[in-house]
Model the fold of this input.
Amino acid sequence: MSNYLFLLWQDETKNPTLGTPESDSHMAAYGAMFEAAKSAGVFQNGDPLTPSGTGQTVRVRNGSTESSKGGFPSSSEQLIGYYVLDCKDDADAATWAAKIPAAALGAIEVRQIWAM
Done:
């Protein structure tokens, strides 16, 4: 088993409005995925992130630090959360990625974590 990082990419504007039946259903889908991962013993860590506009992007170029508000502006999708799951292999990780609700609205980037 190895730990995999699941980065949830989605257009934030496509999230259902909080307090609506659609939002309740969406959150229930996340709850079901969380419970399934927990019951299977693969869940390690995971949390949603605040909206991309509340963050910053930091780059260092030629010894100078540059900071800009928000995520990467060239992307139509924002990083909205992450999970760390302990998966058997890449195929197992892909199976879990497909269960994350953001996969239906955006994309799940799956990367194995190097044990250094």
Remarks:
- The chain has three helices and six strands.
